[in-house]
TrEMBL record:
Residues 667-686 are annotated as: Disordered. Residues 1-23 form the signal peptide. Residues 550-633 form the DUF4986 domain. InterPro entries: 6-hairpin_glycosidase_sf, Beta-AFase-like_GH127_cat, Beta-AFase-like_GH127_middle, DUF4986, GH146_SB_dom. The keyword Iron-sulfur does not apply. This is DUF1680 family protein. Residues 674-683 have a biased composition (Basic and acidic residues). The keyword Signal applies. Residues 36-417 form the Non-reducing end beta-L-arabinofuranosidase-like GH127 catalytic domain. Keywords: Signal. GO terms for biological process: carbohydrate metabolic process. Residues 428-522 form the Non-reducing end beta-L-arabinofuranosidase-like GH127 middle domain.
Amino acid sequence: MRIAQGLLGMMLCTLLTNSNLHAQDSLYNNAFPLSDVKLLEGPFKHARDLNIQTLLKYDADRLLAPYRKEAGLPAKAKGYSNWDGLSGHIGGHYLSALAINVAATHNAACRSRMEYMLSELKSCMDANAVNNPEWGIGYAGGVPNSKVIWSSLKKGDFTAYHAAWVPWYNVHKMYAGLRDAWLYTGNQQAKTLFLQFCDWGINIVAALTDSQVQSMLDTEHGGMNEIFADAYQITGDHKYLDAARKFSHNMLLKPMAAGTDNLDNQHANTQVPKAIGFERIGELSHDLQYFKAGRFFWETVTTSRSVAFGGNSRREFFPGATACMDFINDVEGPESCNSNNMLKLTEDLFRSDPQAKYMDYYERTLYNHILSTQHPVHGGYVYFTPLRPRHYKVYSAPNEAMWCCVGTGMENHGQYNRLIYTHRNDSLSLNLFIASELNWKAKGVTIRQETQFPYTEKTRLIVTGGTSRFVLMVRYPAWVEEGALKIWVNGHPVSYTSGPSSYIALQRTWKKNDVVDIQLPMHNTIEHLPNVPAYIAIMHGPVLLAAKTGTEQLTGLVANDSRWGHIAAGKKLPVDKAPVIVEDNLLAMANGLIPVKDKPLCFTFPALKMINPAKLVLEPFYQIHDARYMMYWMVLSGTQYQTYLDSLAATEKDRLALQQRTVDFVAPGEQQPEADHSIRSDQSRTGSSADEFWREAANGGYFSYNLTTNKETSIELMVRYQGAEQGDRKFDIYVDGEKLVSEDNTARWRHPGFFNVIYAVPDSMIKDKDHVRIKFQSLQQGRTSAIYYIRLLKKE
């Protein structure tokens, strides 16, 4: 096997050395260079052009500040303050975004800025070699406290690594940025820096045992395995493929390869990049374990863990089946980073196995999630997309709020021309119905796609230059009914035997002025929220329909630089007071929508029976901005609705009353909330039970969080425990180092279930304070209870 892989590497190296292929073709062999696919007027071109304007508002020197600092170079600008524990992560995304737009549009300002960043990164790498020779040769990262983290990790000491905020995740973004600067623009300096950086990564973990590496990978690390797989394909050097395998997390790899879904309560965007790496390793090495793992992950997430617009996760985690109601109750809905990475995984799987199902998912997510996460006027990016009825999205502003989804947002809107067309041998696949022009240089033909899809149900391909014989593979989308798709070539109808979610092959010698007309009839369908059948979404073809419900109390609509500005923290409107559909026949309901005259993709439903009725218009979700909305609707039968609503009203009243009293809260065991509240811990571990997360400490260990008080007085601390715990559960709770209470929960609740305990906090502990640190301290030879939720409450 090793010999075969070595020969493959030699072949790859020879191919890449001697070939005149564009760098993008070299890595993604079914793709067209972005420069060869031109977007024409339409929503995607608008989004791309607006995004370039937004990108150029960012200050490159501020993005580079963490890199200069860690390299020991004098500052040129002050770094960004928000998410400072991840300083440097946006710089890599920004470099990728610049490279993408250089390739797609030849934008001179983007090219100049990209080349400036590369020269600065070269200076940082050179300085690291001089200033940090023990660990920093080849280092191009901006991780805060890099010297301590990487020098100690190299020796097998994980103390600083675990105390930091996801160091490998951070540097992965610059790995990807350097790769992309070469991949999309052919910049040789970027390629050299990338490979030197890869060599640094290999050296840092060279002395670690397999067990230590797997322990290291328990912390979010982005797509490091993918990066090394790419380096292997670039060079043919087997050391990079070995590194890719080394950086593959067995916790996910082995169950996925065996067809076992172990994703409940896993941090979603920690897992997706791992799966991308699995697929890439499988693609390049032909190792079925890796390919199976990537494919099964995709099947699991897209078929049972994704919502109508293609996204997944709530509060950044995959919920278990019984926790999917959180999609409705919470406002931290699917994260746009997840969809960015799921589209990359989809692209990679499609390259190896070009099935239409991959493009069906890709199209749905592109229109309904990715496009919806950019503000159409100021270009801000969205982190969470709430599913909660009558809630809203929050947008970033340039040079503030440097969230992870700002980084992927920078990249998202430059790649809309990426998979409209692909090629394989002598076939050309038409995957997406987006107005565009293709220059297929290898065949000497140019093709123009004229369409206003999805506002019209058709598209037209025109051969505008050249003559060549090839197979045109026309995608038959899953959302077109059996036999409803129509194709004409030069006015003559084409017969076919394919069905929905497939491709129709048209083989001929194509000549200038040949015309292919494709009719794509759309209809309405209903989709249930995963594991919550009472809630439905309405689709028209691939487009998610939603309704604006108001513009009241859009708190933080454009986020400031606050720590939690990415969360739409405005008032939650009661779920039981939202419009509720009463209908026994969902098919009839879908067919009963009335198109709005002269407003494509807009519908009303005047005949529908509804509780809490409102005059609403359904429209594409990606068009809804600066407003509250409904994309998921409760639907009840005529016999069940009153009883159900009475029960829901009581529950919702209690839930909203608790929210109104809450000053701040943290969910222990959940990665982002803990980071947001500056967790400190020792001898502490996390887990989940009954779809809720917990954290505990043992043997004199502790954990603590920084919670805001807003200078409130009359504060109470609510702590959520679970009953029927085993062992000695005696511990102390502190407020800013002052003991609040000594607690003994040993055998306190002898039956399972959750129990909320409220502790009065003396005014002396919180007077004139903006924040307090809440600490749970275990006793020697003992442990704390598992802590599930912590709230600071205003007294009733």
